[in-house]
Amino acid sequence: MSDFSTLSRQSADLRKKGNLNEALDVFKKLFEGFEADCKEFEWWGYAQCLLKLDLYQDCLDISGRGLEKFPESGYIKNVHGWALYHVMIKPGPGSNRAAFFEAARKISEISKPGDKYSPLNLTALEVIDVLEDNYQENGDTILAWIERMDVAGLKTETFSFVNEQGRNVEIASQLEKYHTARVKALYECGHFEKCIAAVADAFAAIKAFHYGNDLWLRRYKALSLSETNAMDEALKEYRWILTRKQDWFLKKEMAEILMKSGNADEALKMALDASDDPGEESYKVSLFTMVAQLFKEKGLMKEAAVHARLSNALRHEKGWQSDPEALEIEAGYAESAQLPSETAALRHLAEKIWEQWQPSPDRIAGEISRMLPHGNAGFIKGNNGKSYYFKIKDVAEKGLKIAEGLKVSFVESNSFDPVHNKESVIAVNIKKI
Question: Tell me: the pLDDT tens digits for 147-184?
Fold first, then answer.
């Protein structure tokens, strides 16, 4: 039978050479026969071997017992932290959020500050991802986790893979995730000056952004500028943003800034443009109330009342409470009793108002010339000889089956081509001919 010294030396030598399975067998013999004699580095070596072999639960058990014997061991704390990360953090909280957050707390507690080899940064990113669904309750906690992170230890490398559709997908680096989370958290928690500075930090640190993060960072900057009454700068940012992305809620936000800066006419134009854009109508209830308010300021009470009642009709469909401001605007219209109460009829009236107040852009006829493999976008060959990129979300008719050869009409819209890094013109408001 081998003695303690022989087994200790053999297990350590095999582990250092990378012969992990053989080393594990020797570690098991060592601990079966001489556990009471094992010192800090035998416990760490055993746990490290289990960690490298992806035996995370076993690693968690061994490193936990090792910490009971050597509670101040930085080596065992590190491997125990990684075991906790793989067993409790990386899979997500599931149905046991309490255990998830307790594991995260433990990792934070045992991780050495500034240790780039600890799991603290990855743990923080996972925790932030879980908490981000409710900034009202979790904003301060998210900021606290961001402050715990070791920025110098964050990886700058991206990760690429080919998805099921055969497309190459590149995942943002840890550093980019950190900066985007920090900017959002500072804005959501009302630290607007710090948010503006954090956006500058992000652009200084990141050379190429993913998922349009550069646009969203500039959005938070613009919103923060608005909150600090730097309206001209905020509007300048939004005008750039709308060359890249024209979702209705971005137009709504710009309309709010225009309204706040005293430009009611342009605010109304932008808000009506947003109202007519594709998007789930129940999400637009505050937009319709804003339109009602802008019409009221112009003294156009019927138009105001239509939008106010539409806002609340949509709320009632969702079981939500009425908007008091919308109720007040509606009550200010003497003939409000003559307005329909059904959502569909109110929408029809609102659409007529949108048509009256917005100049009708020239529609261009064309044909779907190519659909991209993922099916979410494609190209239209216009009768004017030009080719236009389009996205399925910009098809105006819900349920319309888009296929190559389909005759359509559309409207030109300014956009931004991230592939060629230049402004472009795309097709929107697409309808079947």
Answer: 999 999 999 998 888 777 677 778 899 999 999 999 99
- Residue 175 is inside which H or E element, if any? helix 174-188
| 191: CB partners within 8 A, 6+ apart | none
The residue to which tokens 């007040």 are assigned: 328
Domains held by the chain: number = 3
For the chain, the helix, strand and coil percentages under 3-state DSSP, each to the nearest 5 = 60, 10, 30
Residue 12 lies in a domain: no
Of 148, 172, 200, the position where a domain reaches its end is 148
- Establish if 325 belongs to a structural domain: yes
Residues 381, 337: one domain? no
Residues 270, 303, single domain; the answer is: yes
Q: Give the pairing type, strands 168-171 and 159-162.
A: antiparallel
Given a contact cutoff of 8 angstroms between Cβ atoms, the answer to whether 11 and 32 are in contact is: no
Check residue 279 and give left, alpha or beta (phi > 0: left; psi -120 to 50: alpha).
left
Alpha helices by DSSP H, listed for 53-134, are 56-69, 74-84, 97-110, 120-131
Backbone angles phi, psi at 148, to 5 degrees: -75, -20
Q: Which of 88, 20, 85, 28 is nearest to 53 (CA)?
A: 20
Contact 221/253 with Cβ under 8 angstroms? no
Q: 123-154: buried (b, 16+ CB within 10 Å) or exposed (e) per residue?
A: bbbbbbebbeeebeebbeebbebbeebbeeeb
pLDDT tens digits for range 320-338: 999 999 999 999 999 999 9
Residues 254 and 290 in one domain: yes
What 3-state DSSP class applies to 157? coil
Distance, C-alpha 399 to centroid of its chain: 27
Query: In what helix (H) or strand (E) does residue 425 lie, and over which residues does it extend?
Result: strand 422-432
Q: If DSSP codes are grouped into helix, strand and coil, which group holds residue 360?
A: coil
Does some domain include residue 4? Answer: no
For residue 312, give its domain range.
246-360
Q: CA neighbours within 13 Å on the CB side: how many for 273?
A: 21
